[in-house]
Each structure stands twice: as structure tokens, then as C-alpha cells.
Input
Amino acid sequence: MNMKNIYSIIDDVLKANSSCALCTIVSSSGSTPMKTGAKMIVCRDGKIFGTVGGGDLEKKVIENAINVIIQKKSEHFNHNLLQQHGMCCGGKVSVFIDYVERAKRLYVFGAGHVGRALSKLASALEFEVYVIDDRKSEQEKISLHKINKIQMSYKEILPTLPFDENTFIAIMTRDHSMDREILGFCINKPFGYLGMIGSKRKVEVTKKMFISGGICTENKFAEIDSPMGIDIHAHAPEEIAVSILAKIIQLKNKEKIKSTSYKLISGEYI
Output
């Protein structure tokens, strides 16, 4: 596979899967079936594209790659083909397995002051940002081309959106009942982060409504970040956006940083 094809295949794989592994022979010596630069893409289910030489070596590389995907951590492996794999060619190869994941997707429901500030910050950190609001006047205030603007009603767009562990959701519309409707739809979907802006009273009222209405359990409601963000005594929309994004980053990097439960106590900016 040439480099153009390999990245095109990775792009296609990530559209169907949240992650994959790119295995590259970074050095080789002696007699080996494939030389330095050979690449192979491995999916979580073991499906492969390309080759690093076949036989027991490739079988082990696939096993290592699946483990890299599970651990979400790139790793380097050395192989002696005769001693470790019984391959008579007898050379040595070094394989780097790179964990590759799809960009984190952020849905910002509401293109008000905080929504616009959050989308701008998140886009700079390579989130795939979607701002959803049916108000043309508010959407027109977003000038960055890399931010995806969806001008549709929430009821219309919600059933069409994909949700998975790489989906981050920030709810901050102009209306409390609208926030609750969106939250009720999203809460039982898979997500990496789900937050709703609002006061402590709004959160408590929403919690009682959801539990009494059978929308979710108390334990499930506890997964919501609401009030949103890390408490940095934020007041301005931009400050609140920073606090929300800090919480999102903390959860995104939860394998590296143990998440601590912080809450933002703030008013509402819509």
C-alpha cells in the first residue's frame, strides 16, 4: 500500500469504527518477508488491510494491535522471526503500532453567547464541532468555517445524529423545556460527555421530572455534568466556555487524568 492509499483506508475505517491501529515495520535486519516501511491497518475485530509479512509474525502483530486498540496506547514491539515465530527466514523486525482514533465529536445545542464561545475554543483543540440551533441570526454570528452549523429544529435533527463514546454533548439552548427535551433524548444514548447548563434549581427540578417520569434512573442522571463545567468562579460567557471545555478535556483524557467531580455554579447565558 502506498501512503496515499493507507490514509484513505484509515479514513474509511474510522467512519465505520471509532478506532483502529496502524502497524509499521520501523526497522528490519536479515532475511524478512517485508522490509522497513511496510504497513498494516488492524481493526478491533481483527480485520486487516495491508500486510507486515504474513505467518505467525502477522498473527502476533494483529494480537498486539487489538490490545493497543483496547488499551488506547501506542506501543513498540521487537520480533525475532526464528526464535519467537519459528519462521525459517530468521531475520528481525521492529514494529510500531500506533493507536488511531476518530476525532472527538462535540454537539453544541444552542448558538447563544456560551455556545459560540465553546464552539470556537473546541474547534481550536481539534474537536469536530457541530453547533445546532434553528435561529439563523445566531448561526450567522459564527464565522469559523471549520465549525459545522446545523440550522434545524432539535426535534428534526436529534433522530439523525450518530452517538458513541466519542460523542460529547453540551446543551445550552434559549429555553429550559427545550434543554430538558434534548437531555431526555440524549441521556440514554452512548456518550463521552453530556452536560446541561443551568442553575442548581434547574438541575434539581429536571432530576425530579426525569426520575418520576421514568426517563432515567438516579444513577444515570448522576452521569450528567450539570451545572456544567469545572468551578473556576466563571461569569462571562467566554469564562464559562473555558470551564465547560476544561471538564470535557478532563473526561476525554480520563485514562491519563483521574476525573474529579467538579461543578460550575453559574447563572445562565443564552
